[in-house]
Amino acid sequence: SDAPSIHYLTPYVAMTHAEYFRDKGLNVVIILDDLSTHAQSYREISLLSQRFPGRDSYPGDIFYAHASLLERAGNFHHPEKGSVSITCLPVATTVEGDLAGYISTNLMGMTDGHILFDADIYNKGSRPAINIPLSVTRVGRQTQNDLLRKITLEVLSVLSQYEKIQNISHLGSEISDDSKRILEKGKAFQIMLHQEHLIIPREIQIVFFGIVWLNMYDLSTQEAYKKILDLFLSLYEKEAVRDELVRITMIESLPQFLIQMKQNKLIQTICKQKTS
User: What are the ATPase F1/V1/A1 complex alpha/beta subunit nucleotide-binding domain coordinates in residue numbering (predicted)?
Assistant: First the structure.
């Protein structure tokens, strides 16, 4: 209901506020929701100003307008606080999940990756409704150690195969034992990735990957997952348990990590306790 001029100015005002807090020595997160509406408002203003239109009737400098806005975010040196940052998360609307739209492809060319929220996945009840195969990170793996990078690749591979095999199984086709195992792992990973407004420590997330991979516990239902998760979270408050989980998850090699998972008496005891 606001005027196009208000829509056009809003992200610039928001970024100026972020810069104010940055200059105060604070780390800032700014979410621009959404730049598709901003682009449409800019297009309306430009057409009314009788400026020559470009692709999809957007003004010719729409890429520059968004790029110059997003480039105001980043890491900065503060004279008193040291390193401070503005983290900018631009949002764009897609039509029926089409990533090839003009504004969305522009933003993908400017940013360090993107997350695609899928309406079909949302309607299936998954939260957050992220389309994992079509979501991309260009710098995220640089913040991970070797173990996390390998686990990420394995999970992505299983989830990708899980979707394909699910589509085939719906047709009534017979599937192999390997495909059945992928379906079991994929379902368990889907349950693990379903979030219920709960912060799960990094070490527990990694251990749960090992539990699924080694089939140490049946995580095929939300109830079973919640039971063992609650137990891990309660035990994690004990320093000895926390230190043991940290020790296991600091291993760089995935094969060595899985060997440690098999041999670890604490994890074996927890899994047997809940299955007995």
Answer: 2-136
